[in-house]
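Journal club prep — side note

Before the paper discussion, L.F. wants everyone to see what a predicted structure for a comparable chain looks like in token form. Sequence:
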Amino acid sequence: MEPPRGFWKSVGQFFLFLPYFVGLLLLGFIKGIIFAPIICVIMTIGNSAVVIALWPAHVVWSYFCILSAKRLGPVMKVVVCLLFTPALASWPVAVVVGSILGGLAYGFLGPMFGTFKPSKKGKPISLSIDGTWDTVQWSCTFVRDLKRRVLIFILTTYQ
């Protein structure tokens, strides 16, 4: 299919394509609204469980590293421990809030972008399915990979 030649033919093609684009945009918007809460719950529960379960180990290891530092004097160790406490206390809260926002954003945008991805099947039913199951699978993969990365970090750091 060749592109149209001339300004008015291009404008005509634009207006012919516009309803198709708006229809896909609305379909993606509806899929995003349906799947955003599901993805948000998967990512929030998974990421929060990983980080909160390993938070005590991070706290113990952080204070151990500060207190065993040879370049810090005793007064400086106390000051650093006191200043580091708010950062450690706010870490789980920041992870929960970030997981909620990230889960909502990905849960809404993943199916929406999947609607515009070219379908290999070429069937109209695939437009309503594309991007939905992939988004659910990717959110589970993200939680699994986060768990692996955090555990590898902990196991290699605490040796």
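L.F.'s comment for the group: Residues 34-157 form one domain. Keep this in mind when we get to the figures.
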